[in-house]
Amino acid sequence: MGISSVDNFIKQKKEAKKMFADRFSFSSKKPLLGVVLDKELSGKDSLRLMQILEGAANVNVQVAVLSDCELKNLKTSNTIILPYSRANRKHLMQAADMALGFKFSDVEEMLLNGTIPISPSRREVSDYDPNKESGNGFIYRKVDHWCMFAALVRALETFKFPYDWNNIVRSGLESVLI
Fold it and tell me: Helix or strand or coil: residue 137?
């Protein structure tokens, strides 16, 4: 994918995010964190997610959770709960800047949509290194809410730098298209 086509892709992604933000009445300037739950979470994962969302309510991020089960206990002031459908999944992946990944998450789908994974260690995701300006995601090395939240905060801090963020998106696209 050439530079101009990646730039066009990023422009289309911003338009998709704006439409999504307008639909759910939030600012498209805020980073959008997607959470796709296409598998029922274990009790521990459900508790971790709830703790992360509580923390996310205190940082500058909008969260959209896509799930086919009822998630009343996950509702926070910055969280949108979407019923699971193919259309909602497509719209969320096209609009989200980043997505919280679990062992079962489809990180290739995230990367193909320019959505940066916050993920446990996996072969498809290389941890972003700001000194080398390399990587296509943010890895949490230990599966606990503090490590996951720390990876989210790293992603949010990097999102503030559009040049760096666009390079991560480009790296993610290249990693799945090559």
Answer: strand
Closest CA to 46 of 74, 80, 12: 74
pLDDT score of 72? 60
Provide the number of structural domains found in the chain. Answer: 1
Whether 32 and 20 have beta carbons less than 8 Å apart is answered as yes
Q: What is the CATH number of the domain that holds 80?
A: 3.40.50.2000
Distance, CA of 100 to CA of 37 (rounded, Å): 10
What are the pLDDT digits (tens) for 68-119?
776 666 666 788 889 989 999 999 999 999 999 988 889 999 999 999 999 9
Residues paired with residue 36 on neighbouring β-strands, in sequence order: 66
**DSSP assigned state of 42:** P
User: Which pLDDT does position 131 carry in this prediction?
Assistant: 94
Report the SS3 class of residue 36. strand
Query: Which residues are within 8 A (CB) of 106 and not within 5 positions of it... i.e. 6 or more apart?
Result: 36, 38
Q: What is the C-alpha separation between 70 and 156, in angstroms, rounded?
A: 27
Residue 92 structural domain: 3-177
Q: For 130-141, what is each residue's pLDDT tens digit?
A: 999 999 999 999
The burial of 50, by beta-carbon neighbours within 10 Å (0-12 exposed, 13-18 middle, 19 or more buried), is given as middle
Q: What pLDDT is attached to residue 68?
A: 78
Q: How many CB atoms lie within 10 A of CB 81?
A: 15
